[in-house]
Amino acid sequence: MSTITIPFDGKPLCFEVPDANLAQVLHPNPSTPLRDLDAAIEAALASPIGQPAIEEWVRPDDRVLLVSDDNTRLTPVHRMVPPLLRRLNRAGIPDRHIACIMALGTHRYMTVEEMQAKVGIEVFRRIRVFNHEWREPGNLIDLGCSAYGTPLQVNRAVKEANVLIGLGAIVPHHIPGYSGSSKIVQPGICGPKTTAETHLLSCEGGGDSFLGIEDNPVRRDMDDMADRVGMKTIFNVVMDSEGRVTGLFYGERRTAFKAGVQAARDIYGVEYQETPDIVIANSCPCDLDFWQSHKSQYPAQRMVKPGGIIVVCTPAPEGVSPVHTDLLQYTGWPSAAIKAAYRSGRLTNGVAAALAIAWALVREKASVINYSPGIPADHKAKLGHIHAPSVQWAVDEALMQQGKSARVTVLTHAPDLLPIFKTNA
């Protein structure tokens, strides 16, 4: 027997797999965190990628909007913003002309305490820091449609600013290929109607996601939206599996993002040489709810053989979703039925419908066993998943269903991993 240990809810979680069945244990590749993060941030700000230093092109009368990812991400915004503010101040822009919006997409609103922790108490006191309150139509403005025909409704704060800087992290992501860059605009600060169409577009990949595909329709659509709202600059990080920064990418949006994608691929691109019957997919670091931890499914979906089993392991203390509570009514349906119901108007929450379609596409390739202390057994049934009382029970059940020669691959940090098939040739 091989004893496997995965990080689970801040603690190690162990289970056993017979040696004869274990194919691979895949985890992020080794990387070196920056030794002096503050010095590295200063160096990045002093030498932007593809554009002059910010002091050379902003004007004292500019209004600046920092667009930050939320508390579901580990981006060290509290370390990144203070030196950026110093440079803006030196360029003559006062704090009262600078604001920071939490790019929630359609996540729950952050509390004051969470926003303070995200940006740091000093920054919170100096500039306006506020949530993208996406549920309030009055907070949105209509900018027509993107080049792909997506209706573009975005937070009106972009109209009040003429300098936008996106703050976030770059990792492989099943919807736009990689997170970061223009994703901070869409879905970050867009309305749910916009986000629904983008998410639905991501389900048009022939049954697989766009995970790790740098150039795809969703990324091109998001880039067009970022162009339309005027976000030309990003400050993105790449982190290791423990949330330590390994690279900083500040400067012109497209150029800086391209450099960051390569750095993320170096860490999270993992090679495999056989198609497993069973994939154990641990949700770390996306553990808050299934709305986050569902990302563990897509690397597994790409790897697992048709008719195989995916075992999702996630703490999910907030359940399936504290916001999109209606999706359990239909998330167990086939993907085609969900899509038809949304297009006919029977379902109105397009964002939830789009994710439910993605989840159904996973189930249509492989069965899903779900080990989660935070998701009740009846909710797992509504997800179309098999309830597992323990991770060891899930492994044993999967082996029983797939047979004594079944091959098992373990993904220790599944949401961030990009499986790359390597042939023997």
Kindly list the characteristics that best describe this protein.
425 residues; alpha/beta; 2-enoyl-CoA Hydratase, Chain A, domain 1; Rossmann fold; 2 domains; 6-stranded mixed β-sheet; 20 strands; 32% helix; globular
Written account of the structure:
By secondary structure, the protein is an alpha/beta fold. It folds into two domains: 2-29 and 273-421, 2-enoyl-CoA Hydratase, Chain A, domain 1 (Alpha-Beta Complex), CATH 3.90.226; 37-267, Rossmann fold. It is 32% helix and 24% strand. The chain is built from 14 helices and 20 strands. The chain has a six-stranded parallel β-sheet with strand order 3-19-15-16-17-18, sandwiched between helices. A six-stranded mixed β-sheet has the order 6-5-4-9-12-13, sandwiched between helices. α6 (192-202) packs parallel to α12 (350-363) and α11 runs antiparallel to α12 (350-363). The longest helix is centred in the middle third of the chain and has 16 residues, at 253-268. The protein starts with a strand and ends with a strand. The model has no long low-confidence stretch (mean pLDDT 94).
